[in-house]
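Practice problem 4.
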């Protein structure tokens, strides 16, 4: 899965996207509810097929990456695509957010990252615990 930027909407299900300076047409993986993507929006795409110089791309929802049995390199890619550094705090945060299908770019993510950076040894388990404190604060 890689990140790209929407250039323009071609039809309700198709978009022109920019991946590292090259233009591609990509199809939505599922119907997006709410507003359509606009120029400059970041989306995650996966390559469905490749033939010669062309690729069939599919857009997955940018806030809820479709990662099945994620590995460390998936978290590295997602952190990088979402603008997070490649450090243990960011990778732990991404793992916790992906497991709960929460947005990678949000106030929750910012708060979780700040808390994890303050910890001597951030882990996905610690991120999950801190995330519960953020989502369900005690009064």
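Answer key:
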């Amino acid at each position: 899965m890689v990140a790209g930027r929407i250039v323009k909407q071609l039809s309700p299900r198709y978009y022109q996207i920019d991946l590292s300076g090259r233009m591609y047409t990509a199809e939505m993986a599922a119907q997006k509810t709410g507003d359509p993507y606009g120029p400059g929006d970041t989306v995650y795409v996966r390559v469905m097929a490749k033939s010669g110089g062309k690729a069939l791309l599919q857009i997955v929802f940018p806030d809820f990456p479709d990662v099945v049995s994620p590995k460390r390199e998936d978290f590295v890619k997602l952190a990088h695509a979402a603008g997070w550094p490649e450090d243990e705090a960011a990778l732990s945060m991404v793992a916790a957010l992906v497991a709960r299908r929460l947005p990678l770019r949000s106030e929750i993510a910012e708060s979780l990252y700040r808390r994890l950076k303050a910890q001597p040894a951030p882990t996905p388990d610690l991120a999950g615990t801190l995330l519960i404190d953020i989502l369900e604060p005690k009064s």
